[in-house]
Amino acid sequence: MKHHRRKFDLPRHLMRIHEYKMSSEPRGVCLIISNMTFDSPLRYRHGSDKDEESLKEVFEWLGFTVEVHRNQTAEEMKAILKTHGQKHHEGDSFVCCILTHGTTDGVYGTDGGIVTGKDIFSLFSGTSCPSLINKPKVFLIQTCLGKLYQLVPVKPGQEQTLQTYVEIRIPVDEDFLVVQLPDEPFVSLSIQLLCHHLKRYCPEGKDIDFILQRSSLFKPDTQISTLNPMRKRLVFHVPKYEFLKTRKDSSDTSSAVMETLIKNKIFLLNTLSTDASIVLQYVLKDNIITSREYNNLNQPKYTQEQTIINLLDNVMSKGDEACHKFLKLLQREDLQETFPQLKKLFTPDETSQKKESIKRVFEWLGFTVEVHRNQTAEEMKAILKTHGQKHHEGDSFVCCILTHGTTDGVYGTDGGIVTGKDIFSLFSGTSCPSLLNKPKVFLIKACLGKLHQQAFKPGQEQTLQTYDKIGIPVDEDFLVVQLPDEPYYTWGNPMGSSSIQLLCHHLKRYCPE
């Protein structure tokens, strides 16, 4: 395994320097303007109340003071925005969510009047709102407002014109992030998915770019446009009291339920689309959808696949409770008799689970994971030699060896032995200079003697207490971890050895801290 530095990755000691400060209590103001009912011929915006509730919940959880205004005319919207543009902001950031109808000229008030981009953004420039200088200002706009992206790079201090049909000029050095979310009928999947991913990834310290990317890639036909001339990474750090509550709260299980549907969407599409009408009857009977939603979904113009896609989007847009009910439905024997493939979803492959626990957790930690199964001793040596000779650009190297072993070393599948010297000497400073001053971690799950340090002075070599002499220079930044080799996957546990599973669990549990 080698660590691969992603586009926005920085060395750990520089990460916070290149992040916006996000520690004030409260974090700042989150303003939500939600228009559902219109005096003009514009249609009623179904589901906007659900989107509003989800945004309010997630930003309160993130430590913001949330202010909600419903059904505002254009002039009332301008007045609200002006009030916030003129006030003194003590928090570290400002968030504004506008949920309404729109046009290429701007966004609509309930009276059909238009609030232009200039009416919105100019109020929060450094000149108009000095208390937000050098602080991130995030605008989530769920409506049609033209294409929001930069035309060409510009120098700090200059202004840029967004490519849209209305003149929206935002100084590039004003720390704006403008996110355009598509306006979808009924409940907006994009809003619900964004809120879900904020709750999923903010405790892990993921930045807003990562979260927006996840939210847009999930649904191929959903385009989330952004204008992002921000100078630093924007990470919404969860307040400590909320973070602790999140870890202990049963809502972790609920979020996992929605994550299960997201990960298995293609599988469910292929399985359930063989008879979409039966699925609709089941979800209606279990009150997962309403009669009106059933009629909207059960249209002759939709193919079976389109019907299931719309159903899954509808269920996930309703949140964790509906997802939980839907998963319980999929486990019913009568439904599984019609769709026997569903049994695979709830009967995981135990062997692959044991093998993939380490793979999943180190991918989650940002490593590029390379897996080799069932290797002879010579094949193991060749793989290790390849990695010992290559140039490593990442910040660290991790090697996990899961096999049988003896006091002389670890076994290949042919019974041949790979000694400690065969393993560790390949990654010394002399053999692998690209890993100098970088941590080299070896997780070995096999009997290999007692791997612990004896007292020594810097510059000396240490001998691990094992029957095979393994010399590791103390200044080579090695960490060798011997995990006990437990019989029968630890007292009959089919999910893998307890030491590996517990290590993976604690890595996911404590690394975010």
Q: Which stretches are low in confidence, meaning pLDDT under 50 for 5 or more residues running?
A: 2-15, 145-169, 217-224, 246-254, 348-355, 448-471, 486-497
**What is the β-strand count?**
21
The residue fraction in helices comes out at: 25-40%
Major sheet, described briefly?
6 strands, mixed
- The mean pLDDT is 76
Strand content: 15-25%
Read across the widest sheet, the strand sequence of neighbours is: 3-2-4-8-11-12
Q: Specify Rg, calculated over alpha carbons.
A: 28 Å
The secondary structure category is: alpha/beta
Question: How would the blueprint of this fold be written?
Answer:
Layout (H helix, E strand, L loop, with lengths): L1 E2 L8 H4 L12 E7 L13 H14 L3 E6 L3 H13 L6 E7 L2 E2 L2 E3 L5 E2 L1 H5 L15 E6 L16 E3 L7 E3 L4 E6 L7 H13 L6 H10 L7 E3 L12 H9 L2 H13 L1 H8 L3 H10 L5 H7 L6 H14 L2 H11 L2 H6 L3 H4 L4 H15 L2 E2 L8 H13 L7 E6 L2 E2 L2 E3 L5 E2 L1 H5 L15 E6 L15 E3 L7 E3 L4 E6 L4 H5 L5 H13 L3
Helix pairs in contact: 2-5, 5-6, 5-12, 8-13, 9-12, 10-12, 16-20
Structure, described:
- The structure is a single chain.
- By secondary structure, the protein is α/β, with parallel strands linked by helices.
- The chain has three domains: 19-245, 3-Layer(aba) Sandwich (Rossmann fold), CATH 3.40.50.1460; 255-345, Death Domain, Fas; 350-510, Rossmann fold.
- Helix content is 37%, strand content 16%.
- The chain is built from 20 helices and 21 strands.
- The strands form seven sheets. It has a six-stranded mixed sheet with strand order 3-2-4-8-11-12, with helices on one face.
- Helix 2 links the parallel strand 2 and strand 3.
- The longest helix has 15 residues, at 350-364.
- The protein is flat and about 80 Å long.
- The protein starts with a strand and ends with a helix.
